[in-house]
Request: fold
Amino acid sequence: MNAVVSENQVTITEAAPGKIGAEVRGWDVTTFTPGCPEAELLRQLIYRNKVVVMRGQRLDMTEQEQVNFARAVGRPQVYFQANYHHPDYPEIFVSNNLNEEGKKFGVSGTGRYWHTDCSFEKHPLPFTSVRPIFFPKSARETSYIDMARVYRELPDDLRRYVDGRMAMQEAWPRYKVQACDLDRSIDELIANFKAECPPQAHPAIIEHPVTGEKILYISSGFTSGLVGLSYEENQRVMKALFEFAEQPKFMHTHFWEEGDMIIWDNRSLVHKGSKAKPGEYSRMYRIGIYDELPFYVGIEQ
Reply:
């Protein structure tokens, strides 16, 4: 590991060669402003290490301060479905299973499958930042897979299927039923959601615009198949690809501590949240961030 201590006692520990995950201690992210050196350093840490955890953040950080941090790093996303929004800060995507005073607040049970955020959009989401508000005792981890490493180690018999081929990304199987869906058929819900969020094709292998790495850009959560293969061949090939990628040797797990804020690069990683036991509560505030670079080489912003 590579540790660097700055004059103001900021400690940065970067990932060892071939690994992912950097840790920063001593930063107060609420002091970040657009163009500040710390924000630019953070972006470079994300590109190099793929996921960065910033320890010891203020537990009383306000929603506005979290939004300001996101604006310092890039351009905050407003997610396309309003039922995920914080009621006062639409930039904040709320994952929450505790509704107070009978009011629905965010959406529960999000992201418990391998995926990369917003791969199903025409312009996918580069960064995701997450701050826990409270988390359960039994499930305090988020797991990641380095898909650049997966591609490097991909067997030739699988590599020939993905090199130079497009992959379809679809969100509709993950649609969360809302109160407004009462009395509507499943067929109608699917059709309406596909119209709102149509499937998108992206290269199965993308090139990172900063690092130049080649990355296997698929996930069992959102990738429905490879363009040009029959249904039967897709079923076989996708099963083999996901089984190879989702091996424990490729996984990195972050175990949350109070005061953590984490940010990662969706180009390089797929991730999965943990599931709390019945009766335990969790709430996470997520902000997607656009770094204003092409998501991959060859795509226009």
